[in-house]
Request: fold
Amino acid sequence: MREAATRYVLLGAIDALKAASGYEIKQLIQLAIGNFWNESFGQIYPALKDLAGEGLIAAADEDIGPREQRRFKITEAGREALSAWVRKTPYPDRPRSELLLKLFFGKFADPKWAREVLTSARDQYAKAQTVAAMGFDQTLAEDAADPSLVYYLMVTEAGRTIQAARRQWAERALEMLDAFERGGNAALIALVKNDASSA
Amino acid sequence: MREAATRYVLLGAIDALKAASGYEIKQLIQLAIGNFWNESFGQIYPALKDLAGEGLIAAADEDIGPREQRRFKITEAGREALSAWVRKTPYPDRPRSELLLKLFFGKFADPKWAREVLTSARDQYAKAQTVAAMGFDQTLAEDAADPSLVYYLMVTEAGRTIQAARRQWAERALEMLDAFERGGNAALIALVKNDASSA
DNA sequence: TATTCCATGTAATTCGTTACATGATTCT
DNA sequence: AGAATCATGTAACGAATTACATGGAATA
Reply:
């Protein structure tokens, strides 16, 4: 059975931040790997408790105010656990896209609806693409001496590439829709056949 | 709260197949939209029961053998429910990639490990890419008169585009790793800066 | 005859989101 | 003073996988 990744994300985030609270971990996840990962508070706080119980993390400060930030740092055992987990071959992703699913059943709506969802998706992808590009430049500038630089660049590059591809697809899908509305399946087939031969 | 998509996938699959059993639905999902959706039997069979109870699908045959195939067809109410769901704006996907996550924490393993996961990912993506391309050609040939052709082409095109992007990224990531192993961060930075300026 | 594949289904468990409760601090 | 934000946490619910049970049909 696939072991849940949550605990290890927390370990890694805490390590990257040297010492971190649940809130800070959440922020880091969103900022650095939000493109392909997320965690909710409902999982973070209980998991922190568990990790502390197992000695994989330890409180960073002693003065435990009742509702103050509780920062943790990673322990040697935590580092080992994280390292062991990383080395296990990752499970393949099983992506789920409600957008593509609904498009697949597009005939139950109408072309006008399809145009709307596609344009809005394209705009979102375009925005995400610029954000991803900025993230790349920032990584390059900020972590120039970091031993993790290669890995950071790899994953930010993944964000860039995938977002660009998504945007490209959305534009292509709109072209298909145009062709279809102009001249039905015949025009559509002409479009895709034509581009395939010219490529 | 986001409504679960499972029931509507089943409705759509049953409609596409005219009449279908749980097993056949599973097969269709895997074949046609496996790139971006999946359902397990543990969800399919209970959901079919529910849908039948609500009158959104109905048994296609009368002779109910005890452990034979139970085929269902969609009802008019089912078509309406599906149509209403499709028209609601889709929730944005929140993808999770264990591969990228582990790469992000790559410093807890070593470059040799990274090279392994990247090459294996690249090979898988390449395979998926050819499968996706075949799917595109097949859709084009088989459903030339189908009113859903535009939508089928759109989603198969999505599969093609995304798989190609993933492959491209994996190759790029390997280049980055090469540069890093050759000359550390300096060589790595030179690589990405150089390509950025020439592009 | 044994094994594999087709096929349906249930139960247990885990995972993950959402909603809620609480209170401190900072800004307007 | 009031609103927004920071911050931690719990409870309830729903979604999804996995394991298991069952048995017919085909095949080796």
In short: Chain B has two domains: 6-87, 98-198.
